[in-house]
């Protein structure tokens, strides 16, 4: 396999430089529109958010006579509700992401294997992801009712969403169940890019199926792992909807379903305190950013482009 | 050497081994079906509820009692779901096509082309994932209002031209494709765009299929941005989700109508999924690579 | 094949943009001769929306120089409105909930109405003072209540009969006694006598009934009221909606998991359409040392950035005037906030609370309510003391 640098017929240094220039030019052209979209609708709002986080900022802009200060960040530091929201969010993400990845990968492997009725199972496992989240959450609330299906099966009367010690974990279960189908799709696509000769070679070598998976398939999926980890990890840290629905918008019981985004939402849109909401957003962003850098350093290193 | 010994141990001719394998397979199928049923329950409940009366829908029996098509009639006549479906479909198709093109083009560039600052830009793109919608809302809304892109589809399409998730995924996928193909294309004198269009894109079939499904569904199910950008004052612009939101009120949810509407909403997604899922059959692309 | 698809997409987008721009331009030119006023609110259901549209049509007919465009916001109202305020492009007239009124007024997005009131000699005396004051800051009026509802007592008739209780409780003592009778006679199988939410939007009424107030939230009167409310849980006579597996007390009453709840006028259409088979009765809210109740109310207000303020005022004053409000009351979906407008029949228990109702809302509303309700749940579960909760609430009200 030749390396990328050798692809151009070398006819003197000038032409090589020109070829490099051309490659860079095309590269920039291809990413121009995406970068414009990201710049305008993500980076600019972020910079705007960072700016206003240093002011007392209302619906119509800077509050009268407001000056730049770290007041909002001090307020966050002192706010127990914010601390709890961040703690909940990270605890939730730490639990739900491995669960989603494992479940999604498992489903993808099963579907990918030669079993009968593959199309049926594929559709079945994907269905929770497409049914409206209102319906899904309602069913989950029903199944996890104190006198609901789950309790009837295991013989308990626990109020899963109504008890502060179980509410968060119940949402973990709910979301892992609904997103597994989506994770499955990404892994399925990634599995297709592994050429079948790899499996054939392993079979010829007499490698057991478990070993084949663990030593060959799993490592080859590294780009997919990185993708799923980053995308669904970040998604988990931005959790809002399910927490909001199961707690009826209160973040309860006893602050157990308060999420960081809920805090931002409440400060900005209910209390019209945009400066503080932005500050919370910046803190969350920095936390996620650091986490992603760590992920990139550990898992992402495998695929140097 | 390895070949010889492995051949010897590869094919056991002892029946008990085969029997346990059949038992193992049967168990696997039972588990799968049980799992599938669990996953299917929300769907079944949705269908059942759409045929119930409102009082009956408060309870969770899977058989409607009495059985009625009132909800379906109400949804079709009292609410303009035909229009909502058309709007949703239009948006979903446009946004999905644009995304597939821009994300794959950009993903290819990040995976294969070298340009200064590439890694920094990529990290920036990953960074955009970390910004919650709530934080972006006001600046975007003010921008779009000033450009007169509120109250119609154009603002919505503009901000959804391409998403970081899609671009990121395409990049990851392109990284796994062996370089032989591009080498061959280069030797044939193909430029970068031609390489992308003729070689890389066809090879990315499964990834495109996955993204098509997910982006279509994402746009179809999007509630937040349509509500904010064109959800006020223009009922003829309502998407399915905005239409469905009419059925969820503060102290009451019209469950039968909501479920009927949801089923109308799910149908196209299911169809798209069924169409594109056949690209997940292994061996299709493998054959392409071998050739 | 792919190229064709891309071309199709591009054409579609272009076509759409053209259509949209054309139609927008068209719309603008049609309305050049008539003043347009935009009216917005959230949806309370198709019946209500249709009724309001009907009322708007009546207005348009009787006021030919003004055309009112009514549109519903079918989702997060506060967020959608905030975005519009920020872009200086809000509807001219819109709903304001009493709980968010102080915030929006302070942010300067709501138009003070005193000049208009003076000019048209508008009579504000007919509004119930407790409701009107929710939209008044200092001497300035920022809106008029369009309707309201207090809390009342709703009971399950069959269960009460089984427990041998003749009518709904009227005092704290009767409430306690009735709850105990219901429990001991087993009248509520699979539930509890009372369904009480961990919500200050219900408990605050009890605080008022004990002569407490939010001005001095750590006073003994408040603590006593809180302890009274939570005592029902400790004695096994009450459960929260979540504990009963329902979304709110109304659902508990409908599914017959509770015999006594405290809800407002909104319960009636809900029970009628969702649980028509459950026989329930309505009585006026219980009385502690005094009568005390919460007025949940919404105003029509004008945007500071409204384009045609005079026309907007005409609409606003008409909707909250005797004529407009009477039309709105015709379906019994809400109670009139004016004393010179009649409600439909059967609302006496609610209307009786008029004089003793205080508008629902307080400083730093959203953050404080989160603390209030989460702490209350903790107190009910025995994880926090009443004193700790009141201290947290006090800090939040001030901050």
Overview features:
heterotrimer, A: 305 residues, mainly alpha, two-stranded antiparallel ribbon, 2 strands, flat, C: 399 residues, alpha/beta, six-stranded mixed beta sheet, five-stranded mixed beta sheet, 47% helix
Name the strands of the widest sheet of chain A in spatial order.
1-2
Distance between the termini of chain C: 63 Å
Give me the Rg of chain C, rounded.
24 Å
Provide the residue-averaged pLDDT of chain A: 85
Order of helices and strands of chain A: HEEHHHHHHHHHHHH
Mean pLDDT of chain C: 90
Oligomer: heterotrimer
Largest sheet of chain A: 2 strands, antiparallel
Mind summarizing the main beta sheet of chain C? 6 strands, mixed
Question: Which structural category fits the helices and strands of chain C?
Answer: alpha/beta
Query: What percentage of residues of chain A falls in helices of 4 or more residues?
Result: over 70%
Label the overall shape of chain A. Answer: flat
How would you describe this structure to a colleague?
The complex is a heterotrimer of chains A (305), B (291) and C (399). Chain A has a two-stranded antiparallel sheet with strand order 1-2. In chain A, helix 4 crosses helix 7 (167-192), helix 7 (167-192) packs antiparallel against helix 10 and helix 10 (222-237) runs antiparallel to helix 13. The radius of gyration of chain A is 24 Å and the shape is flat. In chain A, 71% of the residues lie in helices and 1% in strands. Chain A is built from 13 helices and two strands. The two termini of chain A are 15 Å apart. By secondary structure, chain A is an all-alpha fold. Chain B is mostly helical and 291 residues long. Chain B has helices at 2-10, 15-50, 54-57, 70-78, 81-112, 118-128, 133-146, 153-159, 164-175, 180-187, 192-203, 205-221, 224-230, 240-245, 255-276, 284-290. By secondary structure, chain C is α/β, with parallel strands linked by helices. Chain C is 47% helix and 17% strand. Chain C has helices at residues 2-30, 46-62, 77-86, 101-107, 114-120, 129-132, 157-163, 172-184, 200-209, 220-234, 241-244, 249-254, 267-274, 309-319, 322-329, 348-351, 365-380, 386-398; strands at 35-42, 66-73, 93-97, 136-137, 140-141, 144-149, 152-156, 192-195, 238-239, 258-263, 280-284, 293-302, 357-359. In chain C, helix 9 (200-209) crosses helix 10 (220-234) and helix 17 runs antiparallel to helix 18. The interface between A and B is large, with 98 and 108 residues.
């Amino acid at each position: 396999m030749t390396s990328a640098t050798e692809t151009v017929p070398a006819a003197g240094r000038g032409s090589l430089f020109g070829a490099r220039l051309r490659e860079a030019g095309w590269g920039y052209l291809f990413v121009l529109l995406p970068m414009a979209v990201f710049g305008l609708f993500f980076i600019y709002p972020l910079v705007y958010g960072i700016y206003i986080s240093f002011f007392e900022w209302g619906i119509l802009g800077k509050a009268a006579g407001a000056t730049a200060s770290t007041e909002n960040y001090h307020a966050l530091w002192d706010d127990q509700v914010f601390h709890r929201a961040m703690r909940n969010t990270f605890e939730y993400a730490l639990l739900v992401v491995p669960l989603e990845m494992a479940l999604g990968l498992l489903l993808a492997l099963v579907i990918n294997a030669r079993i009968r009725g593959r199309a049926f199972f594929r559709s079945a496992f994907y269905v929770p992801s497409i049914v409206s989240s209102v319906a899904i959450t309602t069913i989950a609330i029903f199944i996890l009712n104190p006198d609901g299906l789950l309790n009837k099966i295991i013989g308990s009367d626990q109020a899963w969403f109504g008890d502060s010690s179980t509410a968060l974990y119940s949402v973990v279960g709910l979301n892992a169940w609904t997103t597994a189908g989506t994770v499955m799709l990404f892994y399925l696509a990634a599995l297709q890019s592994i050429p079948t000769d790899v499996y054939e070679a392993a079979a010829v070598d007499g490698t057991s199926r478990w070993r084949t998976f663990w030593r060959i398939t799993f490592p080859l999926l590294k780009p997919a792992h990185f993708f799923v980890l980053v995308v669904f990890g970040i998604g988990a840290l931005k959790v809002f909807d399910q927490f909001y629905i199961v707690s009826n918008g209160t973040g309860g019981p006893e602050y157990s379903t308060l999420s960081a985004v809920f805090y931002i939402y409440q400060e900005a849109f209910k209390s019209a305190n945009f400066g503080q909401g932005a500050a919370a957003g910046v803190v969350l962003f920095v936390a996620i950013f650091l986490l992603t850098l760590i992920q990139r350093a550990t898992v992402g290193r495998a695929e140097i482009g | 050497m390895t070949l010889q010994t492995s051949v010897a141990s590869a094919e056991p001719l002892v029946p008990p081994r085969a029997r346990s394998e059949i038992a193992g397979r049967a168990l696997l199928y039972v588990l799968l079906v049980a799992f599938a049923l669990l996953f299917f329950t929300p769907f079944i409940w949705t269908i059942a509820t759409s045929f119930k009366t409102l009082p009956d829908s408060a309870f969770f029996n899977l058989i409607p009692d009495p059985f009625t098509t009132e909800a379906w009639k109400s949804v079709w006549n009292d609410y303009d779901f035909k229009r909502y479906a058309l709007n949703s479909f239009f948006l979903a198709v446009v946004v999905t096509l644009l995304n597939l093109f821009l994300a794959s083009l950009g993903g290819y560039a990040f995976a294969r082309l070298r340009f200064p600052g590439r890694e920094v830009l990529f990290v920036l793109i990953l960074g955009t994932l970390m910004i919650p919608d709530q934080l972006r809302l006001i600046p975007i809304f003010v921008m779009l209002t000033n450009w007169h892109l509120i109250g119609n589809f154009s603002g919505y399409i503009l901000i959804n031209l391409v998403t970081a998730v899609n671009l990121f995924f395409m990049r990851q996928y392109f990284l796994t494709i062996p370089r032989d193909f591009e080498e061959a294309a280069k030797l044939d004198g193909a430029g970068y765009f031609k390489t992308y269009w003729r070689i890389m894109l066809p090879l990315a079939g499964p990834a495109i299929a996955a993204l098509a499904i997910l982006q279509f569904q994402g746009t179809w199910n999007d509630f937040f941005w349509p509500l904010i950008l064109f959800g006020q004052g223009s009922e003829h612009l309502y998407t399915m989700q905005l239409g469905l939101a009419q059925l969820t009120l503060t102290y009451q949810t019209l469950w039968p109508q909501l479920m009927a509407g949801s089923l109308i909403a799910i149908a196209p997604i299911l169809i798209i999924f069924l169409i594109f899922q056949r690209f997940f059959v292994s061996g299709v692309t493998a054959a392409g690579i071998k050739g | 094949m792919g190229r064709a698809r891309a071309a199709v997409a591009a054409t579609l987008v272009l076509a759409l943009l053209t259509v949209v721009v054309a139609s927008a331009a068209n719309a603008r030119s049609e309305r050049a001769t008539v003043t347009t006023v935009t009216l917005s609110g959230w949806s309370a259901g198709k019946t209500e929306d249709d009724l309001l549209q009907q009322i708007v049509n009546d207005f348009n007919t009787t006021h030919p120089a003004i055309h009112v465009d009514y549109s519903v916001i079918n989702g997060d109202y506060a967020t959608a409105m905030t975005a519009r305020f920020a872009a200086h492009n809000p509807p001219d007239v819109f709903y304001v909930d009493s709980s968010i009124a102080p915030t929006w007024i302070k942010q300067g997005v709501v138009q003070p109405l005193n000049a208009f009131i003076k000019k048209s000699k508008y009579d504000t005396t007919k509004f119930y003072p407790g409701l009107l004051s929710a939209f008044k800051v200092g001497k300035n009026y920022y809106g008029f209540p369009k309707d309201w509802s207090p809390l009342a007592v709703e009971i399950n008739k069959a269960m009460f009969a089984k427990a041998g209780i003749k009518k709904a409780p009227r005092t704290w003592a009767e409430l306690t006694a009735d709850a105990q009778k219901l429990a001991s006679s087993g009248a509520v199988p699979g539930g509890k006598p009372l369904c009480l939410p961990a919500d200050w939007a219900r408990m605050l009424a009890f605080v008022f009934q004990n002569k407490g107030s939010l001005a001095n939230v750590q006073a003994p009167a408040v603590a006593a009221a809180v302890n009274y409310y939570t005592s029902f849980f400790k004695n096994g006579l009450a459960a929260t909606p979540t504990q009963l597996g329902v979304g709110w007390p109304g659902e508990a009453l409908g599914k017959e998991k509770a015999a006594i709840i405290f809800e407002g006028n909104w319960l009636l259409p809900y029970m009628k359409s969702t649980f028509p088979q459950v026989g329930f009765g309505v009585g006026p809210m219980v009385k502690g040392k005094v009568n005390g109740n919460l007025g949940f109310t919404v105003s029509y207000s004008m945007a500071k950035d409204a384009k045609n303020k005079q026309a907007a005022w005409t609409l606003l004053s008409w909707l909250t005037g005797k004529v407009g409000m009477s039309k709105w009351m015709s379906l019994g979906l809400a109670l009139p906030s004016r004393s010179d407008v009649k409600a439909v029949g059967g609302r006496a228990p609610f209307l009786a609370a008029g004089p003793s109702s205080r508008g629902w809302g307080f400083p730093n509303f959203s953050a404080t309510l989160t603390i209030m309700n989460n702490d209350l749940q903790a107190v009910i579960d025995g994880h926090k003391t009443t004193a700790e909760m009141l201290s947290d609430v006090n800090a939040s009200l001030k901050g």
